[in-house]
Design a protein that fits this description.
Strand order of the largest sheet: 1-6-2-3
Distance between the termini: 28 Å
Largest sheet: 4 strands, mixed
Order of helices and strands: HEHEHEHEEEH
Helix content: 40-55%
Low-confidence stretches: 1-12
Mean pLDDT: 80
Number of strands: 6
Strand content: 15-25%
Radius of gyration: 15 Å
Number of helices: 5
């Protein structure tokens, strides 16, 4: 029984961090504080305008991942990785929303940089606590 309980405790923070990340990206999108795509992200990271960088784990270009990780490490910018580019594209607003509120025509995205958090939210506090404890 303790094994099942341990698994639940391990999975819950990851889900909580993803929900917090989604909330932070949504708030930043409203404030026009996102840079999406390699060119915009690299420029924002190099100018040190970034507070947070989100990278997709399943990116096919190794040089892409090396560049973003190196820029984040050089400028001491927090980096978090997500599993799917389509999900990141949805969170970053690269989709159309239909009448029912479901995302349609989702464009995948490999990298998103948060330049402005927007409003301070519970999700932001969860993310900052996650980076502090990591």
């Amino acid at each position: 029984m303790s094994d099942a309980g341990d698994e639940i405790q391990v999975d819950a923070p990851a889900a909580e961090v993803e929900d917090a990340l989604q909330q932070v990206l949504k708030n930043a999108l409203v404030r026009d504080g996102l840079a999406r795509g390699l060119r915009e992200c690299a420029k924002a990271l190099d100018k040190r305008q970034a507070h947070l960088c989100v990278l997709v784990e399943t990116c096919t270009e190794a040089e892409y991942i090396k560049l973003i990780e190196a820029l984040c490490a050089e400028h001491k910018i927090n980096l978090i990785k997500v599993g799917d580019g389509k999900i990141l594209g949805t969170w970053a607003g690269l989709c159309k929303i239909d009448k029912e509120g479901n995302p349609r025509k989702v464009v995948g995205c490999s990298c998103v940089v948060v330049k402005d958090y927007g409003v301070e939210s519970e999700g932001l506090n969860v993310l900052l606590e996650y980076f502090k404890n990591r």
